[in-house]
Amino acid sequence: MLGTTIVADFFREKGWQVVVSIPSSVNELVQAVSQEWFDVVGLSISMEQQLSTLAELISQFKCSSLNPRVAVLLGGPIFALRELRAIDFGADDICVNAKHAVGLAVSLLTND
User: Fold this and answer.
1) Could you tell me how many helices (H) and strands (E) the chain has, helices first?
2) How many domains, the chain?
3) What pTM was estimated for this model as a whole?
4) For each of the chain's 112 residues, which pLDDT tens digit applies?
5) Which CATH number do you get for residue 55?
């Protein structure tokens, strides 16, 4: 939770509106993405077990989002431990830290 809060603060400092959600289920998370316009959805992944369903979750985001071009950024401890590629999960990129996340989000939106 601390990492997510820090990333959210970095985005807010740059003028972004941020929603932090810690849902009790995947369905709640997908529902949240489907009910509000998001330019970027960020996911913090902590455990290797979360990787097995990550591609399906991202696919659900992209299918249910009000924004047909929603970008998905990944971050979290697992990406420091393992060399993984965003494209393998259907995501747009992987962030290594909070400052990096903001820069990636801006570049994804300006490259549209």
Assistant:
1) 5, 3
2) 1
3) 0.88
4) 677 888 888 889 988 889 888 877 889 989 989 999 999 999 998 889 999 999 999 999 999 999 999 999 999 889 888 889 999 999 999 998 888 899 889 888 887 5
5) 3.40.50.280
